[in-house]
Known about the structure:
The structure is a single chain. The chain has about 260 residues and is of the alpha/beta class. It has a single domain (about 15-250), classed as Rossmann fold. It has six helices and eleven strands. The strands form two sheets. Strands 1, 2, 3, 4, 5, 6, 9, 10 and 11 form a nine-stranded mixed beta sheet that branches. It has a two-stranded antiparallel ribbon with strand order 7-8. The two termini are about 40 Å apart.
Amino acid sequence: MSLLAKVVTGKQALPPRITVYGSEGVGKSTFGNNAPTPVFIDVEGGLGEIDCARFPLAKSSEDIFAALAELRTAEHPYRTVVIDTADSVERIFHADVCKRYGCNSIEKAAGGYGKGYVESAAMFEKLFAALDVLRLEKGMVVIILAHAKVEKFEDPELGQFDRYSPRLHKTACSLLKEWSDAVLFATRRMRIERDGDRNQVKPIGAGAGERILKTEGGPACVAKNRYGMPPEIPLSWVAAREAIAKSQKIAATPVANSPLSDAS
Length: 264
């Protein structure tokens, strides 16, 4: 059969690869825990107050990849794998690279000049490949959580400004953004009010402000999605699922065997 005979058309409703990043306590882990039958690969140790299924705290890259291998080879009920968090994974990868070269700084590893970061990025590529196996062979949704940082960004048209991005080295961050189907910034809806000669930032909505996900990048944050999501959606798995399902033309409440279903 020729290659042309194997050409396929149309959308493929594959399980999504979602990165959610934001400040501490905004609700990233809760988002992951509301996905279909999730299991966490806990790299940070911050899940004690959340009722969730999780592997023992991963203290090494071997622990991380062993958990992924177990999910691939063993029978289990889990339909979502959640990495909590990418910046904690990077810290472990940096430690592994430093150990490999007998140094105490990623800046000095592999002879310096950024080569240590390149080796750490290669470990992230291995991680993404393992997650893709779970997605394609096991039909699992993949969610990666990360903390946010403020970075300086130079835009050729807009000049220099500060924006939020995942708390990763720029090489690993670029790989994560390229690999993910959606990079979503978790934040609170706020407004600026004038108080005398000062501006005050105040929340919009109950409590500390309505929690939202920004789905499109701009001067304020790094974000993207391949699903045509609205620019902002509520910070909830249900809202993200409905936006993705609309793009994939799947019912908002999918059948049990759909990768976006909440059914067990």
